[in-house]
Design a protein that fits this description.
This protein is about 30% helix and about 25% strand. The protein is α/β, with parallel strands linked by helices and about 350 residues long.
Length: about 350
């Protein structure tokens, strides 16, 4: 099969489209999917550079998100059949440990992500465990059907943002939520989820153009974090009360501002640290203001079923910035680093 092959850790020069053996079904509970589209995430850039503690077998295939047509199914697969159009949860669990048996698959002791720990979606075929598969839903008329591009762009960031806001932070209607970096995939979906819940959403970006687009999506207040003091402005907007929830994935560059913007009894939820991982927190403020600081990674199968159900109702449709053919997948990864990107980048296969 044809795939974007990563020959070694490094920069984009280590990537090239080439031929590699097609996957086979590892057991009776997997399905073989012919991919029609794959979507990129910042995780692909981190994997390319090298993630400490993760050892890959080269050539490696990047890509966590994807959608396609079922080509073949194992003998124990019941929920899909050849010819079905599917999308999938990129988080692979063992389905046997205590966390999986309790239904919390993203806490699995052997949790892996497509494209990071195992070969991913920037290829013509991929083998996926049945529990990770979902039929692409059909929204009610007059909404258009979900395209391959949208189906590929949906899963990773939507599942991540859903678990952050709904399961972990338990955002409620009327609460104030601060979301950093609204042009990025998770932050953009977090805005959509916040408005679906009925929260008051304050979003930031260093680009006025992105902030204008965020207002079109439903942001209540937009703040330029390159020119203003976000924490100070949030406190002014809330009559000094502060935000109930802060959505973090930036890390060192914004952590102090996030805590200064947080109200008493507030919750910070984070899924990453794109500007650095070593955070400094004054424990006196933490206990005095009774904050809750929580991490979040991906989500479980019930959460995935719920977001797919909402997609089928016409909610949470992904925002796509650009599409590229597989032959230009390296250029797509270069575009992923672009400061003007607003939404997902998808590779058509």
């Amino acid at each position: 099969m044809k795939a974007l092959l990563m020959r070694a850790h490094g920069d984009l020069s280590t990537l090239a489209v080439g031929e590699t053996p097609s996957p086979t079904l590892p057991d009776s509970r997997h399905a073989l999917v012919r991919l029609k589209a794959a979507a990129l995430n910042h995780l692909d850039l981190w994997t390319l550079a090298g993630v400490p503690g993760i050892s890959l077998k080269f050539p490696h295939i990047l890509g966590g998100d994807g959608a396609g047509i079922v080509e073949e199914v194992g003998s124990d697969v019941r929920s899909v059949k050849p010819g079905d159009c599917v999308m999938f949860n990129p988080g692979i669990s063992c389905y046997r440990c205590e966390y999986c048996l309790a239904g919390d698959h993203s806490l699995c002791v052997d949790y892996r992500l497509l494209g990071e720990h195992v070969p991913g979606t920037l290829a013509e075929f991929i083998a996926i465990p049945e529990p990770n598969l979902a039929l692409i839903p059909r929204p009610p008329a007059p909404q258009p059907e979900i395209s391959w591009t949208e189906a590929a762009a949906f899963s990773l960031v939507t599942l991540t943002a859903w678990r952050m806001l709904v399961t972990r932070a338990r955002l409620r209607p009327g609460e104030v939520v601060l979301i950093w970096g609204v042009g990025g995939g998770v932050s953009l979906v977090a805005l959509k989820i916040a408005k679906l819940i009925g929260a008051f959403a304050i979003v930031t970006s260093g680009s006025d153009d992105k902030l204008a687009k965020a207002r079109e999506i439903g942001a209540d207040v937009t703040l330029n974090h390159a020119t203003g003091d976000v924490a100070k402005e949030v406190r002014q907007l809330t009559n000094r009360r502060g935000a109930d929830v802060v959505v973090e994935n930036v890390g060192e560059a914004t952590w102090e501002q996030s805590l200064r913007a947080l109200g008493r009894g507030g919750r910070v939820v984070t899924c990453g640290g794109t500007t650095g991982h070593n955070l400094i927190t004054d424990v006196r403020r933490l206990f005095w203001h009774q904050w809750t600081i929580m991490g979040s990674t991906m989500g479980n199968h019930l959460e995935y079923q719920e977001i797919v159900r909402l997609l089928g109702q016409g909610e949470l449709r992904p925002t796509v910035h650009a599409t590229f053919p597989l032959e230009r997948a390296a250029a797509a990864l270069e575009e992923l680093k672009s400061a003007h990107r607003f939404g997902k980048i998808v590779v058509q296969i």
